[in-house]
C-alpha cells in the first residue's frame, strides 16, 4: 500500500430535514482498494457526491494529492483524476458506445468530430480491459453488464488516479464480476486508489484491502480487511440495532390454501415464462440481481405493464388482469420500489393519499365526505404509528418510512388480501425498517399474503417463508426458507442461459 | 407582512388572491389615470365596465374549462377556435338553415363537447402529448368552422329580433339599469365548477393525476376516464363560451380565435393554477379573467391596438409560470 | 414471430437500412401524392406549378430545419410561424417605409430571428420553463411586436422588377424567358451543412445528448445550458431565414398572420422521423417531411379543396404523425 492520495475530513452535509453526513472521515491510498460499506441510506453515495462536486459540503476539508481542494463539478473532479462509476448508469441511449465514452471531450478533426478515431480509441480501451464491445453499437442496445463496462472504460480513459465504484456488481453475473475484479486488481496494481462501494460481504473480503464503515450518516471506523471477520463488519454496520436471526422455518402450514397462482407469465424481455404460487398467510420472497425482472414480473402481474401471455388464478379462480384497476378489484395491492414516482402523490395530503384507491366509499352522494375521510386516515396514522402532524399534511413533508406507511394505509383501506411489497425498506432508516417488518408479520398473521421483492439478502432471509429466485427474466428456482442460504440464492440468481 | 399572511381571514382567502384583487383595483385606477393623462374619454364609465364584462363572460367559461385541463398537467390550445367553430356552425344553422334558436344553442354546446371528446380520447387513451394534439384539433376546428359556413362570417340576430332572446343571457335591458345576467351566470358556474374540482371524485382524481398520474393509476383508478373528462368539460365549456361570445358581440368570423387560448391560459396561471398540474383554483381563474378583461378594455380605452395586449399577456404568462416553477423548486 | 421475421427481412436489407425504413415510406408517399395530383389535374403537371411548389416550400423548410433542433433537445418552438411573419414585417418595414437599403432589411430580419432564439433559449435553458409554454408566450410577443413595429400595416417587400428587388432572385431567378428555382439550391446546401453540424460536430452531438439524457450529459461535464440555448438560437436563425424567404415568395406580408404555420414545420419534422421525446432527428428527413406538407398545400387547391380543407388535412396529418411517433417511442421503450 502506498501513500495517501485523498483525505476527506469532518465532512458535514445537511438537506432540509435530513442530516445526511455528520462529520465523516475517509482516507484513500494509492494502490489499494478501499471498501466503503454501510446500509442503504448510510450516506455512502452522498459522501461520494460531495467528493465529486455534485453536492457542496457544509463543513470539512478534502485533501487530494497534498492540496486542499473542492471540486466545482464532476467535470473538474474528472479533470483532476477523480472519477465515479455510477450506480445508476448515466448513459445516452441514443448515442453510440464510443460517443458515450468521449462525451464532453470529443476527439476533433478541426471542427468535425472524428468518430473513426473515437471508435479506435474505444477499442484500445476495451482491449486494455480485456473485453469486447462494438464501439459503433447504440448504447441503448447493450446489456446492463456491457453498459457497466463502458462506464468503466469511460472512467479509466480520464487518466484517473482515484476511481469510485458505486455498487458496480449489483447487476452483474458471476462471470462479469470476475472480469470486473480482474480489471480492478489491474488498476490497483498500476497505483490507482480505488473506492469500492458495496454491501456484499463476500466481495469485500475478496477484492478490498481496507474497509471503512458508515452508519446513519456517521463515520464508524476503518478495518484492515484480512484481519477482520464478516461479523466484525456487520456489527459495525448495524450498530446498536440488533437484527433478528434469519427465519429457520416457514411459518405457513403445508396445506395452506393457494391464494394466488401465476402460470407462464410473459411480458417483454424481462418476464419470461414465470410461474409461482402464493399461499395464504405467506411471505414469498423474490430474490435476484438488479435487472432480474422481479419488478417487471410484479408490474405485469398487477396489470401495470401489458403482458403477452400467462394465466392468473386467485383463490383457484381464473381472473383477467389487464389494468391495475382489475388487480385492485381482485384484492391485489402494489407498493412500488420507487415511492415518489409510483407510490404516493407527493403534493397531496396524507388523507387524500390514504383514500386514493377507495374514494368510492367516502362519497356522500356526489361529494367527498371529508370527515369520514379524515377519520379513516387518522385511524391508520395511529395504528401504523405514522409520524405526521395532521392528516392534511402533504406527504412530501414526511420521511421515507412514513411515506411508505401512507402507501400501506392506502392498501389496507382497500382491504387487499394480496400485497406486493417491492423493496419495502429501500431508503428507509434502520428504526423504521424494523417497524415495517413488524407490520408485515402482523399482516400475514391476519391472513393476508405478501409477495416481497428485495435485493437485501438479510431482508429476504429474515422475512420470507419461501423464496423465488429470478435471473434475466426467468425463474431459476424456488427455495424453502429452511434450506435457503446466501450461497444457494446467489447461485440461482446468477444462473444464466 | 408575515403577520398579515398568517391572519386567518387572509389565509382563508389566500394571500395570492388578495394580491390579485389588489392588482385588479390598481389596474382600474391606473387605466383611468392614463386615459385622463392622454386626454381620452373617461375610463370611469359604466359603459366601460359593461364592455369589460362582455369580454370576461366568454373568457371566463374558456378559462374555467382550461383550468381543468391544466390541473391534469395537460394543456388545450384548441379552445378559442373550438368556441368559434361552435358559434359558426350553430349560427349558420340559425341564420341560414332556419333551425330554432334553442336547438342551435344546444348544438353549440355539443360541437364543443365533441372536440373535447376527441382531445380527451387522443390524450388520455392514446397517450399523445396534449399540446400538439390540441394544436392539431385547433386546425380542425378552424377548418371545419369555415368549411361549414363556406368561409363566410356569421351574424347572430340582434336582441330586438325574434330569435334574439339569447342575448338576455348576457345582459337584460340597456344603459345603467341593465342587469348583468352574464356575470350572475358566470359567478354561479364558477361556484359549481369550484365544487366539482374540490369536492367531488372527478375533481379529486383530476388533481391527483395531474400531480402523479402513475401513482394514481397504480392505485387501481381508471385515470384515462378522469383525464379525458377534463378535456370533455373543457370542450363543453368552450361550447358554452360560444353562446356568451355571440351574446356579447353577435358576429363571428371563420379561421380565428386562437388568441383567446393564450388569454384563457394566462388567466389560469395568474390565478395560481400550476402548469405542471395538480394545483388549480377556479376562484383564482375567475380573478385572472377579470384582470385579462380589464387589460383588454384599458388598452382599447387608451386607443392602442390589441397587439399590445398580446405582448403583455405573453410576458404575464412567462412571469407567472416562472414564479410557479420557482416556488415548486423551493418546496422540494 | 413470422410477422416480425418478415419485417426484419426487409428492414435488414442493407440498402433499406442505409436509407431508413421510415424515410423510404415517406419518399414513397411523396411520389404517390405527386402522381395523384398529376393524374387528377392537368394544370398541376405544368412547370410553373412545380416552380410554385418549390417556391412556397422554402420558408417551411427553414422553419422546419430550425424546429428540428428544438425538437431534438426534447423541447419545441411554437413561435416559429408567428415569428417568421414578425421578422419579415420588421425587415420589410425598414426597407419600404424607412427607406433603408435592402441589405439592412435582410440582416435585420435574420437578426430578429436570432434575438428571438436567444430569448427562447434563455427562457427554456436558463429559466427552465417548459418549452411549449415559453415559446407560446414568445409567439404572442412576436405577434404583437410585428403589428406594433409596422403600425399594423401590411408590408410588400420590393418587387423583383424594382431596383432593390434583386433579393427575390435569390429564390427565383429569371434567365432569359425561364425562371429557375435558385432557392432550392440554397435549401440543398443548408440541409447538407446542418446535417453535418447535427451529426458530425460538437454542437450537434451535445444537442442530441441533451435530448437523450440531459442530466447524464451535464454530469459528463458538458455545459448543457450553453448548448441547449444554442439549439433555440439555431432555430431562431433559421426562422429569420424563413422570414426572408416568406417576404421574397409572397407579395404581401400581413401583420397578425402566421399562427398555425409552425404546425406545418413541426409536422414536417415529425414526419421526417424527428421524435417529440428528443434525442433523435434528421435534417434530411425533415426536408422530406416538408415536401409532403408543401405537396398537400399546393396540390389540394388543384383538386378543388380550398384553404379550410387544407387546415383540416394539416390537422389530421399532424395527429397521425404524432400518433406514429408516440407508438414508435413506446416500442423503443419496451424493446
Structure in a nutshell:
Chain B has 332 residues and is an all-alpha fold.
Q: What does it look like?
A:
- The complex is a heterotrimer of chains A (497), B (332) and C (335).
- Chain A folds into two domains: 4-238, P-loop containing nucleotide triphosphate hydrolases (Rossmann fold), CATH 3.40.50.300; 258-493, Rossmann fold, CATH 3.40.50.300.
- Chain A has 497 residues and is of the alpha/beta class.
- Chain A has 17 helices and 24 strands.
- In chain A, the strands form six sheets. Chain A has a six-stranded mixed beta sheet with strand order 6-9-10-3-11-12, sandwiched between helices. In chain A, strands 18-21-22-15-23-24 form a six-stranded mixed beta sheet, sandwiched between helices.
- Chain A is globular and about 70 Å long.
- Chain B is mostly helical and 332 residues long.
- Chain B is built from 13 helices and two strands; from the N terminus they run αααααααβαααβααα.
- In chain B, helix 4 (46-71) packs parallel to helix 8.
- The longest helix of chain B has 27 residues, at 223-249.
- The two termini of chain B are 24 Å apart.
- In chain C, strands 1-2 form a two-stranded antiparallel sheet.
- The two termini of chain C are 15 Å apart.
- Mean pLDDT of chain C is 88; it is low at 1-8.
- The chains are: A alpha/beta (497), B mainly alpha (332), C mainly alpha (335).
- Chains in contact: A-B, A-C, B-C.
- Chains B and C meet through helix 7, helix 11 and helix 13 of B and helix 8 and helix 15 of C.
Give the helix/strand layout.
The complex is a heterotrimer of chains A (497), B (332) and C (335).
Chain A: E1 4-15, E2 18-29, E3 32-37, H1 44-51, E4 59-64, E5 67-68, H2 74-80, E6 82-85, H3 97-101, E7 108-109, E8 112-113, H4 115-129, H5 144-156, E9 162-166, H6 174-189, E10 193-197, H7 201-207, E11 210-215, E12 218-224, H8 230-238, E13 258-267, E14 271-279, E15 283-288, H9 294-302, E16 309-314, E17 317-319, H10 324-329, E18 332-335, H11 339-343, H12 350-354, E19 363-364, E20 367-368, H13 370-383, H14 400-413, E21 418-422, H15 430-445, E22 449-453, H16 457-463, E23 466-471, E24 474-480, H17 486-493
Chain B: H1 2-6, H2 8-13, H3 15-37, H4 46-71, H5 79-96, H6 101-125, H7 130-148, E1 154-155, H8 181-199, H9 201-218, H10 223-249, E2 251-252, H11 258-270, H12 282-301, H13 307-331
Antiparallel strand pairs in B: 1-2
Chain C: H1 2-11, H2 14-19, H3 21-40, H4 47-55, H5 58-72, H6 80-96, H7 102-126, H8 131-149, E1 173-175, E2 178-180, H9 182-200, H10 202-212, H11 214-219, H12 224-249, H13 261-271, H14 283-299, H15 307-334
Antiparallel strand pairs in C: 1-2
Helix pairs in contact in C: 3-14, 4-14, 5-9, 5-12, 5-13, 5-14, 6-7, 6-8, 6-12, 7-8, 7-12, 9-10, 10-12, 13-14, 13-15
Amino acid at each position: 500500500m502506498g501513500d495517501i492520495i485523498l483525505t476527506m475530513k469532518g465532512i458535514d452535509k445537511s438537506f432540509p430535514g435530513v442530516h445526511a453526513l455528520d462529520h465523516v472521515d475517509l482516507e484513500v491510498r494509492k494502490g489499494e482498494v478501499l471498501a466503503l460499506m454501510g446500509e442503504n441510506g448510510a450516506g455512502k453515495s452522498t459522501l461520494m457526491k460531495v467528493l465529486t462536486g455534485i453536492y457542496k459540503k457544509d463543513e470539512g476539508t478534502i485533501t487530494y494529492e497534498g492540496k486542499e481542494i473542492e471540486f466545482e463539478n464532476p467535470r473538474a473532479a474528472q479533470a483532476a483524476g477523480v472519477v465515479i462509476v455510477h450506480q445508476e448508469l448515466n448513459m445516452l441511449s441514443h448515442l453510440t458506445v464510443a460517443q458515450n465514452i468521449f462525451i464532453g471531450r470529443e476527439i476533433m478533426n478541426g471542427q468535425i468530430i472524428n468518430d473513426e478515431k473515437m471508435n479506435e480509441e474505444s477499442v484500445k480501451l476495451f482491449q486494455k480491459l480485456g473485453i469486447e464491445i462494438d464501439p459503433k453499437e447504440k448504447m441503448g442496445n447493450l446489456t446492463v453488464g456491457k453498459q457497466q463496462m463502458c462506464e468503466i472504460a469511460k472512467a479509466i480513459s480520464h487518466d484517473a488516479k482515484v476511481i469510485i465504484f458505486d455498487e458496480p456488481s449489483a447487476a452483474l453475473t458471476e462471470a462479469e464480476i470476475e472480469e470486473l475484479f480482474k480489471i480492478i486488481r489491474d488498476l490497483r496494481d498500476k497505483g490507482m486508489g480505488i473506492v469500492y462501494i458495496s454491501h456484499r460481504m463476500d466481495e469485500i473480503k475478496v477484492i478490498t484491502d481496507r474497509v471503512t464503515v458508515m452508519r446513519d450518516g456517521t463515520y464508524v471506523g476503518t478495518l484492515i480487511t484480512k484481519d477482520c471477520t464478516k461479523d466484525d463488519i456487520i456489527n459495525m454496520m448495524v450498530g446498536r440495532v440488533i437484527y433478528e436471526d434469519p427465519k429457520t422455518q416457514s411459518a405457513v402450514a403445508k396445506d395452506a390454501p393457494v391464494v394466488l397462482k401465476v402460470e407462464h407469465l410473459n411480458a417483454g424481455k424481462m418476464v419470461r415464462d414465470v410461474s409461482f404460487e402464493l399461499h395464504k398467510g405467506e411471505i414469498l420472497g423474490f430474490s435476484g440481481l438488479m435487472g432480474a425482472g422481479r419488478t417487471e414480473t410484479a408490474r405485469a402481474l398487477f396489470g401495470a405493464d401489458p403482458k403477452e401471455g400467462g394465466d392468473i388464478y386467485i383463490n383457484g379462480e381464473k381472473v383477467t388482469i389487464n389494468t391495475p384497476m382489475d388487480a385492485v378489484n381482485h384484492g391485489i395491492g402494489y407498493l412500488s420500489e420507487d415511492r415518489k414516482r409510483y407510490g404516493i402523490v407527493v403534493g397531496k395530503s396524507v388523507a387524500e393519499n390514504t383514500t386514493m384507491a377507495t374514494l368510492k366509499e367516502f362519497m356522500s352522494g356526489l361529494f367527498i365526505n371529508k370527515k369520514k375521510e379524515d377519520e379513516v386516515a387518522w385511524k391508520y396514522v395511529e395504528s401504523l404509528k405514522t409520524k405526521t402532524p395532521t392528516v392534511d399534511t402533504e406527504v412530501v413533508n414526511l420521511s421515507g418510512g412514513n411515506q411508505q406507511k401512507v402507501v400501506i394505509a392506502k392498501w389496507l383501506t382497500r382491504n387487499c388480501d394480496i400485497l406486493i411489497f417491492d423493496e419495502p425498506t429501500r431508503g428507509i432508516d434502520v428504526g423504521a425498517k424494523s417497524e415495517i417488518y413488524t407490520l408485515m408479520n402482523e399482516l400475514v398473521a391476519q391472513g393476508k399474503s405478501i409477495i416481497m421483492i428485495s435485493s437485501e439478502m438479510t431482508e429476504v432471509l429474515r422475512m420470507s417463508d419461501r423464496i423465488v429466485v429470478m435471473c434475466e427474466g426467468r425463474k431459476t428456482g424456488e427455495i424453502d426458507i429452511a434450506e435457503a442460504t446466501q450461497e444457494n440464492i446467489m447461485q440461482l440468481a446468477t444462473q444464466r442461459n | 407582512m408575515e403577520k398579515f399572511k398568517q391572519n386567518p381571514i387572509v389565509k382563508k382567502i389566500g394571500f395570492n388572491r388578495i394580491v390579485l384583487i389588489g392588482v385588479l383595483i390598481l389596474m382600474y385606477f391606473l387605466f383611468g389615470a392614463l386615459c385622463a393623462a392622454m386626454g381620452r374619454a373617461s375610463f370611469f364609465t359604466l359603459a366601460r365596465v359593461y364592455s369589460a364584462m362582455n369580454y370576461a363572460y366568454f373568457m371566463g367559461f374558456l378559462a374555467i374549462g382550461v383550468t381543468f385541463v391544466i390541473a391534469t398537467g395537460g394543456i388545450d390550445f384548441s379552445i378559442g377556435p373550438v368556441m368559434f367553430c361552435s358559434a359558426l356552425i350553430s349560427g349558420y344553422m340559425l341564420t341560414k338553415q332556419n333551425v330554432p334558436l334553442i336547438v342551435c344553442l344546444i348544438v353549440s354546446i355539443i360541437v364543443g363537447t365533441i372536440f373535447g371528446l376527441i382531445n380527451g380520447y387522443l390524450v388520455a387513451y392514446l397517450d399523445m402529448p396534449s399540446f400538439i394534439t390540441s394544436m392539431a384539433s385547433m386546425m380542425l376546428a378552424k377548418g371545419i368552422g369555415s368549411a361549414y359556413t363556406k368561409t363566410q362570417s356569421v351574424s347572430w340576430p340582434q336582441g330586438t329580433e325574434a330569435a334574439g332572446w339569447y342575448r338576455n343571457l348576457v345582459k337584460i335591458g340597456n344603459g345603467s339599469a341593465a342587469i348583468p345576467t352574464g356575470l350572475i351566470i358566470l359567478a354561479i358556474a364558477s361556484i359549481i365548477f369550484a365544487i366539482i374540482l374540490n369536492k367531488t371524485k372527478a375533481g379529486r382524481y383530476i388533481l391527483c393525476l395531474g400531480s402523479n398520474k402513475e401513482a394514481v393509476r397504480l392505485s387501481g383508478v381508471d385515470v384515462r376516464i378522469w383525464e379525458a373528462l377534463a378535456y370533455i368539460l373543457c370542450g363543453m365549456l368552450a361550447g358554452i363560451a360560444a353562446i356568451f361570445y355571440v351574446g356579447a358581440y353577435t358576429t363571428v368570423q371563420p379561421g380565428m380565435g386562437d388568441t383567446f387560448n393564450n388569454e384563457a391560459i394566462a388567466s389560469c396561471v395568474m390565478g395560481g393554477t400550476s402548469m405542471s398540474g395538480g394545483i388549480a383554483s377556479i376562484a383564482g381563474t375567475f380573478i385572472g379573467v377579470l384582470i385579462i378583461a380589464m387589460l383588454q378594455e384599458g388598452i382599447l380605452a387608451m386607443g392602442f391596438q390589441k397587439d399590445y395586449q398580446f405582448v403583455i399577456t405573453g410576458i404575464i404568462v412567462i412571469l407567472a409560470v416562472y414564479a410557479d416553477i420557482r416556488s415548486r423548486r423551493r418546496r422540494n | 414471430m413470422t410477422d416480425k421475421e418478415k419485417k426484419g427481412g426487409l428492414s435488414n436489407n442493407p440498402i433499406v437500412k442505409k436509407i431508413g425504413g421510415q424515410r423510404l415510406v415517406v419518399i414513397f408517399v411523396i411520389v404517390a401524392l405527386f402522381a395523384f395530383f398529376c393524374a387528377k389535374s392537368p394544370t398541376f403537371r405544368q412547370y410553373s406549378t412545380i416552380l410554385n411548389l418549390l417556391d412556397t416550400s422554402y420558408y417551411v423548410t427553414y422553419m422546419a430545419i430550425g424546429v428540428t433542433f428544438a425538437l431534438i433537445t426534447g423541447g419545441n418552438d411554437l413561435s416559429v410561424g408567428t415569428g417568421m411573419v414578425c421578422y419579415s414585417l420588421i425587415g420589410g418595414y425598414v426597407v419600404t417605409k424607412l427607406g433603408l437599403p435592402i441589405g439592412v432589411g435582410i440582416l435585420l430580419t435574420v437578426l430578429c430571428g436570432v434575438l428571438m432564439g436567444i430569448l427562447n433559449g434563455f427562457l427554456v435553458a436558463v429559466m427552465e420553463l417548459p418549452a411549449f409554454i415559453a415559446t407560446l408566450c414568445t409567439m404572442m410577443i412576436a405577434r404583437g411586436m410585428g403589428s406594433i413595429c409596422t403600425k399594423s400595416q401590411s408590408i410588400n417587400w420590393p418587387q423583383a422588377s424594382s431596383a432593390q428587388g434583386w433579393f427575390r432572385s435569390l429564390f427565383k431567378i429569371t434567365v432569359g424567358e425561364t425562371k429557375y428555382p435558385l432557392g432550392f439550391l440554397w435549401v440543398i446546401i443548408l440541409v447538407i451543412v446542418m446535417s453535418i453540424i447535427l451529426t458530425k460536430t460538437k454542437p450537434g452531438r451535445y444537442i442530441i445528448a441533451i435530448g437523450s439524457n440531459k442530466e447524464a450529459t451535464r454530469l459528463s461535464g458538458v455545459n448543457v445550458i450553453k448548448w441547449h440555448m444554442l439549439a433555440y438560437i439555431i432555430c431562431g436563425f433559421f426562422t429569420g431565414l424563413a422570414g426572408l424567404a416568406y417576404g421574397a415568395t409572397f407579395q404581401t406580408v400581413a401583420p397578425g398572420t402566421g399562427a398555425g404555420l409552425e404546425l406545418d414545420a413541426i409536422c414536417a419534422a415529425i414526419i421526417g422521423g424527428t421524435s417529440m421525446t428528443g434525442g433523435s432527428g434528421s435534417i434530411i428527413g425533415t426536408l422530406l417531411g416538408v415536401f409532403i406538407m408543401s405537396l398537400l398545400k399546393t396540390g389540394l387547391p388543384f383538386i378543388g379543396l380550398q384553404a379550410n380543407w387544407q387546415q383540416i388535412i394539416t390537422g389530421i396529418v399532424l395527429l397521425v404523425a404524432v400518433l406514429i411517433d408516440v407508438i414508435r417511442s413506446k416500442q423503443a421503450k419496451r424493446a
